Structures are given as C-alpha cells and as structure tokens.
C-alpha cells in the first residue's frame, strides 16, 4: 500500500468539533495522521460548553480505522493551550503539526462594539493561535521539524462590515505566521495561512433579512468545508517542505495565492515635503494607485465554480 501523505504525523486541530475543523481532522486521519480533536463545544459566540462535538469526530475517525483523541481545553488561555499540546504528547508521544482553526464571532459595527466583544474574539483567534504555536514551538525546535497552518480570513486581508474584532485578529494572524516562519525556518519549521471560503456555523450568523443577503448566503452554502481540507493536509505534509510564510485562499474548487503588502507607488521630492506640497503634488500623484474601499465580496465577486 502506498505511503499516506501525513502517515504517523501527530496533528492538533483546534475548533475541530464541526465545520472546517471537523473536515480537516477527518481528512488528516484518512491521510494517516494521529489527530488531537480539540473543541470546547461552545456556540459560535463562545457560550456554553459540550464535550459532544469533539468526541463525535473522534468516533467518526476511529470508525474509519484512524487514530484520534478528543480534547476540550480552551485555546484562549496559555495554560490550557499547553494542555492541548501535552495531550498530543501523552497519547501519541510527539507533535508534528498544529492547525489553528478555533474561532468565535461577535459581529458588531465598530462604533457599537463593546470591550468584551473586542476582547473575546481577539483572545480566541489571535491570542489562541499564539498560545498554541508557542506551546508547540519548543517541541518543533528540538525535533527540527513541524508545521503550522493558521486559518485567516478575507475579512482581515480585504475587509468586511461589522467585523473589526475578527478582521484585526485575522490580519494579525498573518503577521504572526510570517514571524514564526522567519524565526523558525532554521529548525525546518514552517508556518502558512489559509483563508477559507466555506459555509460554517460562524457564517451561519450572517443576517438574511434582504433578498440580496439571502442570495449571498445561498452562494456561500455551496462552498462546503471539505474543499478546504486537502490544502491543509498538503501543507502539513513533507511534500510541502518548500512552502513557507505564504497566504492561500480556498474558494470551492479554486486555490489562490494571496498577495502580501508591498510598496505600490512612491513620490519623491529632493527638498523634502511640506504638508502643503503633499496636498498639492504628493497625494494627487499617489491617488490613482489608492487601494479601493472594497469588501471581500467586491473582490471575490464571481460565483464559486
């Protein structure tokens, strides 16, 4: 039998009780990985707690002949993130990959957003990914191998209404991933991001009050979470050894390599600039290259194929 893509690698997938996380856990197990299925079993806003979702995914994996263990610790606390990594070591003896997928939403227009709504979302997405990566980093360094896959979002990369907390965390995650890649490259540790387009419980919170919103949600529902999983499996495999510090997006059957900020245009004045000269000459020269006030849906405007 041919060697499977991630045979005997031990991978932690956070937020793996449903949606994209579940599909990644199932796909990793099918490709030979031993999986720690982490999910605290809360609602999309982070309320309540239930061991059921993670355990159910573990049972699915085992029924298919794979190896998995459930974990219910929260990524939003450093000590708990440490326990998630320790769970992999206790059950499988090592750790080879981390998928930072856990997330919650507290959507609100910025001028109405509460401190708690900001805090809760940044804590899970950005701090949670940092805590998980930091807990695994020393193990990766010692064994001189390891891979991180972080789930970012076009809400951060491009923009969206009512998601300042989520967008800030998701774009921060891109910079975190790049820093991890730069700092740990010498230990053969890789770090990449995926911006997924997929119907999930989180997107299920999008309002459907108007026909336009209903049509948009209907399009998103076509984009099933299992379309994301193949890229995650690949990035965690040795076949991706030369892929590092990149940002990908997956939209149905399309995989995109996303740009990262670079200079677009410059203006120079040998005498230096005054505010008046900037107003009269500098800014008008730059204006034609301004980045437009687009949202994710404006940039990815065509129907998924």
Please tag this protein with its features.
single chain, 305 residues, alpha/beta, Rossmann fold, 2 domains
Descriptive account of the structure:
- The chain has an 8-stranded mixed beta sheet, sandwiched between helices.
- It has 2 domains: 10-257, 3-Layer(aba) Sandwich (Rossmann fold); 263-305, no CATH class.
- It is an alpha/beta fold.
- The model has no long low-confidence stretch (mean pLDDT 92).
- Helices cover 42% and strands 14% of the residues.
- The protein has helices at 19-30, 52-63, 78-92, 115-143, 154-157, 164-184, 211-221, 229-235, 275-287, 296-299; strands at residues 10-14, 34-38, 67-71, 97-100, 146-151, 189-197, 247-251, 254-257.
- GO terms for molecular function: (3S)-3-hydroxyacyl-CoA dehydrogenase (NAD+) activity.
Chain-wise SSE layout:
Blueprint: E1 10-14, H1 19-30, E2 34-38, H2 52-63, E3 67-71, H3 78-92, E4 97-100, H4 115-143, E5 146-151, H5 154-157, H6 164-184, E6 189-197, H7 211-221, H8 229-235, E7 247-251, E8 254-257, H9 275-287, H10 296-299
Parallel strand pairs: 1-2, 1-4, 2-3, 4-5, 5-6, 6-7
Antiparallel strand pairs: 7-8
Helix pairs in contact: 1-2, 1-8, 3-4, 4-6
The total tally of domains equals 2
Going across the major beta sheet, what is the strand order?
3-2-1-4-5-6-7-8
Topology order in helix (H) and strand (E) letters = EHEHEHEHEHHEHHEEHH
**Helical stretch tally:** 10
Give the distance, in angstroms, between the N- and C-terminal Cα atoms. Answer: 34 Å
Q: Class of the largest domain in CATH?
A: Alpha Beta
Low-confidence stretches: none
Average of the residue pLDDT scores: 92
Main beta sheet: strand number and arrangement?
8 strands, mixed
Q: Give the total of beta strands.
A: 8
Q: Helicity level, as a percent range?
A: 40-55%
Radius of gyration: 21 Å
Beta-sheet strand percentage?
5-15%
- Apparent shape: globular
Could you name the CATH topology of the largest domain?
A: Rossmann fold
């Amino acid at each position: 039998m041919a060697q499977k893509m991630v045979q005997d690698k031990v991978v932690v997938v956070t937020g793996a009780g449903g949606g994209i996380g579940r599909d990644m856990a199932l796909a990793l197990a099918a490709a030979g990985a031993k999986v720690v299925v982490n999910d605290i079993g809360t609602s999309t806003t982070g309320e309540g707690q239930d061991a059921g979702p993670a355990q159910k995914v573990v049972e699915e994996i085992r029924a298919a002949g794979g190896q998995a263990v459930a974990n219910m610790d929260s990524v939003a606390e450093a000590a708990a993130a440490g326990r998630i990594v320790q769970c992999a070591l206790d059950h499988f003896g090592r750790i080879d990959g981390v998928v930072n997928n856990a997330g919650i939403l507290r959507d609100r227009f910025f001028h109405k957003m509460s401190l708690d709504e900001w805090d809760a979302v940044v804590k899970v997405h950005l701090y949670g990914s940092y805590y998980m990566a930091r807990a695994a980093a020393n193990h990766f360094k010692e064994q001189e191998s390891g891979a991180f896959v972080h789930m970012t979002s076009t809400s951060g990369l491009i923009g969206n209404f009512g998601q300042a907390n989520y967008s800030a965390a998701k774009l921060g995650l891109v910079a975190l991933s790049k820093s991890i890649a730069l700092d740990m490259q010498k230990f053969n540790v890789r770090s990449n991001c995926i911006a997924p387009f997929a119907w999930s419980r989180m997107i299920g919170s999008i309002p459907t009050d108007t026909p336009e919103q209903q049509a948009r949600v209907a399009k998103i529902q076509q984009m099933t979470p299992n379309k994301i999983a193949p890229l995650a499996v690949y990035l965690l495999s040795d076949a991706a050894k030369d892929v590092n510090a990149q940002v990908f997006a997956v939209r149905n059957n399309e995989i995109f390599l996303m740009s990262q900020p670079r200079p677009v245009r410059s203006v120079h004045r040998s005498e230096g600039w005054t505010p008046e000269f900037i107003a009269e000459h500098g800014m008008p020269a730059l204006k034609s290259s301004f980045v437009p006030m687009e949202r994710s849906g404006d940039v990815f405007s065509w129907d998924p194929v």
